[in-house]
Amino acid sequence: MIRVDSGDPKRISQGDIYKNIEHIEYVVEQEGIFEISKIIFPYILVLTQDCDLAQDHMYRTEDKKTRDKILISVLVAPIYNAEQVFEGTHLNSPSLGLSMEPINKKKSPGKSLMQNERPRYHYIEFPTEVSIVPSIIDFKHYFSVSTKYLESIREIQFVCRISELYREDISQRFASFLSRIGLP
Hints:
Blueprint: E1 4-5, E2 16-30, E3 33-46, H1 50-61, E4 73-81, H2 82-87, H3 108-114, E5 121-124, E6 135-138, E7 143-146, H4 147-157, E8 158-162, H5 164-178
């Protein structure tokens, strides 16, 4: 089980969890009519390094001569309901309609996932004071979110922050997954 803390409520931090985050999948314009495809993720975790987020906050809020530390966006990963991941239904929303491969949690693939031995996934159980069911981060589904967007919704959609030791573990695992050598 991970630990959570409240952290600095004034700024975005690594390990922050937000709820109901909108992600624009695509925008298409045809003859003056715009089609916008939006995915709403129930929960996301901020992956961007905390030192970069701290500098971004300082450069946005203090009178600095340059703005070279300001971030345009923040790297995040969706947090999926673990049971739905095991069933392969976590991306079966009306907007996505994707059926994924089920994972048997009682046999090797599921057990190794729950023990964080599968590089693509990170399994999380939250303390009772956080009303999130056991969940899985899928490192293959990372995306970026506007820093201004996260700041604008922070007061309403911030859920909690994973404590430093646990967010460092997740960060290391994410970096390791991204730096793997892809084989055919």
